[in-house]
Amino acid sequence: MRIVRTRVSLFLAVLLCTCGLSAQAPNPLRFRIQLALGMAQKPVDGRLLVFMAPFEPSLEEIVPENGAKAHSVWIAAREVRSLAPGGSVEMNPDELAYPAPFSTRAVGGYQIMALLDVNHDYAYNGASAGDLRSPVLSLGGVDPARTGVIDLPLSLRVPEPKLELPPDTELLDFVSPTLSEFWGRPIHMRGVIVLPPSYGKDPDRKYPAVYWTHGFGESLPEIAKVSAKRYRQQMLDGKLPEMIYVLLDQSCSGGTHEFADSVNNGPWGTALTGDLIPYLEAQYRMDGKPSGRLLTGHSSGGWAALWLQVSYPMVFGGSWPTAPDPSDFRNFTGPNLRADPLPNFYRKADHTPWPLMRETGKDTQTLEDYARQERVLSEQGGQLTSFEWAFSPRGDDGHPQPLFDRNTGVIDPAVASAWQHYDIAQLLRNNPDGLRALLDGKIHLIVGAQDTFHLNESAQLLQETARELKINITFDFVPGRDHMNLYEGGLDEQIGREMNAVARPKASAAAQ
CA 297 to CA 316: how far, in whole Å? Predict the structure, then answer.
């Protein structure tokens, strides 16, 4: 009996010890996300995102950060299929996370929010109509290595934004035969038409047409609310000559299509010049000739304005691209895509990282860090994948081939070679004699001398190319200006005057 009691006591001691260890065992942070009843009529799909931000300041919605603050908001993701109303799904925020697995974050107070991206477009411009999200949950004393499961209800729906058209503007919604044939379904070309103040007063007067498009991340409601309103007011105030502004929405499922003919996005340049412009010139009192077709846009819109002028020099009479996306691929926001051998997309020859933005300190976000953040947010629609949708060949899986390996930064030589078709500097090199007369004095590229994304460096290489080929292109590197403040000081008005001088040279000369 003594021996039996000893063995039982020993067993109980081991059991108690094991239970104590279990109580102390790590139970890493997990999320259980439930689709609240009434938020959907049927099961939904999408990319589930969970955001984790510092406790302060208090937020109504958590959104990712870029630049020096990129690591303040941590993001976890997973694809969800057929999540039924009332049903739930669990997420391990260590499997696909940015900037690191959630269980490695320090103990502290945090704000947490879940969002189901039903359209897979969060990487383009954030939450969009129909997305489902939770309220922001604020928790103190969170130990991500031991907290266990946190419940988050998808109980809020992102509303459809209101399309508020200012006076003297009209919605453009045109079904392109060319794009519809490519896709096998109706494809709409959308935008906003801003009419001059005198348009309804003088039925015989014709006007130049300005074709404008936006930068990465903008949408049709924003075009109407901001850009259309601004151009209308500037014409009313007499700061801009009267012209018809065609504000084009170039957003698409892949990001921005840039009005480039693409095997992935479709023939957007052909559709613009062959379908939309003839339609508009039949509907509105436009000049209907090259001198009255003028181009402008900023950032990705600047690249589109530059690309269209070089690709269709007999259609357009002038282009004013501002801070265009890389125009000479010898500097694609850093890496030289024409080098032999190719560099690493993430690191320079000395192994230091390429910065995403112009150096502002040790916390500057790198290209690698940005690519990893984008990969968690979505597999399409981000800035880097947007370039691939526009420029890359199509892979066997039906998706654009990636330019570089997202894990290593190694560039695919075959894809880089295919991208040369969209290198504007290379287009000039391929046909200098044919383009020299057609482009003479038509391109007026403007960029900040301290552009935030190094786009002035790519423009400088394009300038060297144009000089070598003796192609007359004007370059203006504005001192003290970056990507965000380039238009301060009246750049809109300057461009408007220069456009008017092309479309109405006699009236412009008389006014001077």
Answer: 14
